[in-house]
Design goal:
Layout (H helix, E strand, L loop, with lengths): L5 H10 L10 E3 L11 E2 L2 E5 L4 H15 L3
Parallel strand pairs: 1-3
Antiparallel strand pairs: 2-3
């Protein structure tokens, strides 16, 4: 994204009421895990490419469940 990075965009989206509970996660070329914890970018979960379909679906399910309180 030439004019804004993903972290800035995610923070701006969260600041808007209609997107405040929208699940956000990053799929990027490189991420670094922190002491065995899931990687994060600006406090959002981050995963590196390539990602398998099953893993991607699991990530989506987890984030949707967290967004609706389940």
């Amino acid at each position: 994204m030439p004019k804004v990075d993903g972290a800035s965009l995610a923070k701006a989206l969260r600041a808007e009421a209609q997107f405040s509970h929208t699940p956000i996660f990053f799929l990027t070329a490189t991420v670094v895990e922190n002491n065995g914890s899931a990687a994060q970018i600006a406090g959002f979960p981050a995963f590196s490419k390539p990602i398998g379909v099953n893993q991607l679906l699991h990530v989506i399910d987890e984030n949707l469940a967290a967004a609706v309180g389940g």
